[in-house]
Amino acid sequence: MVLLDNSNFILRLEKIANAAKKDSSFTLTFKRYDGHDKPVPRAGRPPLPKPDTYMCLIRAQSKSQKISTVVRQEDVPAMMGMYSQFMKSKMDGLKRVKKVKSKAKATKG
């Protein structure tokens, strides 16, 4: 997994979205991140220190490509602005799903 800075993450995400537009999909996950890369220590060992501020870990995956970025608390408004622009520009191909009424509901109502 490649750890990128925020602006490069959005640029690579646009490339992944363009590649996935034809026949595949991609996923995004947001997770609270405390900065620890080590697992929780066993019983009897000192615990990992609590962070002063938490960060947000954003991951994107499409087929075999995986990218991620860590967004600090002070960078959240700028990153969410870039992310919303990405969503508005790239998510235009969504189709409305038609609801199918069941026969039981159709006869009652």
Automatic annotation (TrEMBL):
Q: Tell me, in one coarse class, where this protein mainly resides.
A: cytoplasm
Where is this chain's protein located in or outside the cell? Cytoplasm
Q: Which GO terms describe its molecular function?
A: 7S RNA binding; endoplasmic reticulum signal peptide binding
Q: Name one Pfam family in it.
A: SRP14
GO terms classed as biological process: SRP-dependent cotranslational protein targeting to membrane
- Which keywords does UniProt give here? Cytoplasm, Ribonucleoprotein, RNA-binding, Signal recognition particle
- GO CC annotations? signal recognition particle, endoplasmic reticulum targeting
Q: Gene3D superfamilies from the entry?
A: Signal recognition particle alu RNA binding heterodimer, srp9/1
Q: What does this protein do?
A: Component of the signal recognition particle (SRP) complex, a ribonucleoprotein complex that mediates the cotranslational targeting of secretory and membrane proteins to the endoplasmic reticulum (ER). SRP9 together with SRP14 and the Alu portion of the SRP RNA, constitutes the elongation arrest domain of SRP. The complex of SRP9 and SRP14 is required for SRP RNA binding.
Q: What's the subunit arrangement here?
A: Heterodimer with SRP9; binds RNA as heterodimer. Component of a signal recognition particle (SRP) complex that consists of a 7SL RNA molecule of 300 nucleotides and six protein subunits: SRP72, SRP68, SRP54, SRP19, SRP14 and SRP9.
| Family of this protein | Belongs to the SRP14 family.
Database matches in PANTHER family: SIGNAL RECOGNITION PARTICLE 14 KD PROTEIN
Q: What is this protein called?
A: Signal recognition particle 14 kDa protein
Lineage here is: Eukaryota, Metazoa, Ecdysozoa, Arthropoda, Hexapoda
